[in-house]
Amino acid sequence: MERWQRAQHRQGSAPPDDLPHALILDGPHGPVVQAANRAAWRAGAAQGARVVDMRALCPDLQVDYADPGGDAAALDRLALWARRWCPWTAVDGQGLILDTTGSDHLWGGEAAMLEDIEARLSIAGFSSRLALGETWGAAWALARCGPVRAICADTAALPVAALRLDPDTVLLLHRLGLKTIGALAAVPRLSLARRFARADLPANPLLRLDQVTGHLAEPLAPPLAPPVFRSLARLPEPIFDPGQHLPALCTDLCAQLSFAGMGARRLRLSVYRTDGEMRRIEVAMAQASREPRHLGFLFRDRLEKIDAGYGFDLISLDSVVTEPLGVVQAGLAGGTDQVLELSRLLDRLTVRFGAGAISQPLPQASHIPERAETHASPLTPRPDVPPPQSERPLRLLDPAEEVRVLYAVPEGPPAQFQWRRQTHRTVRFAGPERIAPEWWQDKPGTRLRDYFKVEDQTGRRFWLYREGLHDDGRGGDPRWFLHGMFA
Amino acid sequence: MSRSSAFHRALTDRPPGDIARGVLLSEVFAERTGDAAALGFVLAHLPRGGKPVLWLQDRLSRRETGRPYLAGSGQRPILLMDLARPADVLIAAEEGLGCSALSAVVAEIWGDPAALSFTATKRLAMRAEAAGVPCWLIRHGGSADLSAARDRWRVGSRPSAADADDAQAPGDPRWHLDLFRSRDKQPGLWVAQHDRAADRISLSAAVSDGTLAAGATPAGQRAAG
């Protein structure tokens, strides 16, 4: 929720805090609430409740779609960032788990460390519920159900839902009258083991209880931090032009990448100026690459855009995004690799003119002419879409231009039309070809189109359409548009 | 030499539909704006196959004459670049001509920009010949100034051939081709017919003044034939 609020705030469209607002996900019986702001929690919103129920409780609830993939990615990055406190951190469902054994004294004790974590997270814009436990399970339970910033508190009074059990098992335990962890622990082990002998871990209260008490070990397996590919040039004297050092930096970086079997997709060149400022330029590549000459070429025209100020004495070349890239054998026939050549060309053009300038038109399954092709990024594989049945023009005007038309019969082709202040007389025509609106995505009231291929007195062939019919009840007289040109 | 004799010699000497093959920088002028005949002529000459065509447009030609439409241009793979200035189009064309993974480079330029000088076209021509990638310059609303293009064409639409199934409908398109400068060919005038089904141009040798006059033929056409 807070990530979403900050994103909205950046766009300048953040809703006020006192209006209830919720993020939703599609569930099997309609959308359910995934997260909500403080006003909505106070109005009675609950996680996992259906939006229609919440609307009954709180009629002015605003909803928006949640972004679970983005949340997970943000949590992954947060887990790596949390290595500032201890080296063993991992994502645990919706939260983070830190194994702080042996690192708390560096932060002035456990309580001081928890305060520091909470302060730094709130600076980063996140609210947090923290707890310190002797085991992973105990910390999980205390963080979610215990007191604020609990440190190794007693877990006996916490509800059984704090045991990381699935909802069915929690319901079963409630029906058995076992509402707290203490009550569950008081039951003889043998009877619990007999009752839940075949249940796996999330449905087995005995194993979960052992994890909380530490009888069952649960080691933390933190993911490795992604390797950093960086090449540095430290200079004895400040200079103004990084051009001379660039080839050596590229060669060094490519050697590192080649040793790890990786290729760079995005590079960043940073210069550290003597006045303490830093300037950077970034280039991106269409395909992972680790060839020094190509990487150097991409920076060649952009080096002059670096504001050197009073000079800089440290240059760093980082590979920001890397991808695995195996060793490719060159063709025995001695030819050049076409895909590689094309991606190099795309890189050079993208560096020069920006990523938005170059696109690849691809067919799309639609009868509406302007929707029948999408502009994808280059090197996208071509989808398998059948070509249109009837003839299509070479050129398409985008958007279609309105023309003034004289016609003999309302349903027929134009006898004469005026386009860009020139009058064209229809000599021959083909059509109409009727294209109905796509009801599943067009607004209600969108009118159908009748396309005509029209040849005028000078031999030019145009593609015209009439939008709507005379008595279709969707607006006044139909309008005419010129949409394209045939060869 | 009169133009009329050049026309007849060209019709008899050269195999039809093959007059522009093997030329690496060609310049095609559209007779009028809003006339896609020049584009059709270029498309009919582009090599077929899996290699993509780099298609460059400056802002004005995109706004005035629209964008290339995939469904109408034979489903060739196209890399489309929308650039702001004609100078950018020339730079991108030069970059593209260095890449052998392209089957051709097509650049559309509106008007007579200062960037399209003799030197610029000379650079394009030499690049195209070095890489062996054909380059087509399409000029909308431009005048034929100095240029190093090996072939210079002026192309316009003419009333189309009769459709076999529908007497009212326009059939295969006919274009008026005017090769007014060429390095290794005889300049001349042709009337070409584009066979849409086979995507092949045939120079209609049988066209005489009479058949063209039967349609709504402009005065310039009769004088040329």
Could you outline the blueprint of secondary structure elements for this entry?
The complex is a heterodimer of chains A (487) and B (225).
Chain A: H1 2-11, E1 21-27, E2 30-36, H2 38-43, H3 51-57, E3 62-65, H4 68-81, E4 88-92, E5 95-99, H5 110-123, E6 131-132, H6 136-145, E7 150-151, H7 167-175, H8 181-186, H9 189-195, H10 205-213, E8 229-239, H11 246-260, E9 262-273, E10 278-289, H12 292-300, E11 312-324, H13 338-353, E12 358-363, E13 373-376, E14 395-407, E15 414-419, E16 422-435, E17 449-456, E18 461-467, E19 479-486
Parallel strand pairs in A: 1-3, 6-7
Antiparallel strand pairs in A: 1-2, 4-5, 8-11, 9-10, 9-11, 12-13, 14-15, 14-19, 15-16, 16-17, 17-18, 18-19
Chain B: H1 3-13, E1 25-30, H2 37-45, E2 53-57, H3 59-65, E3 67-68, E4 78-82, H4 86-97, E5 104-110, H5 118-131, E6 135-140, E7 151-158, E8 174-182, E9 188-195, E10 200-203, H6 209-214, H7 219-224
Parallel strand pairs in B: 1-6, 1-7, 2-4, 2-5, 5-6
Antiparallel strand pairs in B: 7-8, 8-9, 9-10
Helix pairs in contact in B: 4-5
Strand content of chain B: 25-35%
**Got a strand count of chain A?**
19
CATH superfamily of chain B: P-loop containing nucleotide triphosphate hydrolases
User: Strand pairing plus helix content of chain B: what structural class?
Assistant: alpha/beta
Main CATH class of chain B: Alpha Beta
Gross geometry of chain A: extended
The whole-angstrom Rg of chain B is 17 Å
Number of structural units classed as domains of chain B: 1
**Number of folding domains of chain A?**
4
- CA-based shape of chain B: globular
Proportion of residues in helical segments of chain B? 25-40%
Main sheet strand line-up of chain B: 4-2-5-6-1-7-8-9-10
Unreliable stretches covering 5 or more consecutive residues of chain A: none
Give a quick precis of the structure.
The complex is a heterodimer of chains A (487) and B (225). By secondary structure, chain A is of the alpha+beta class.
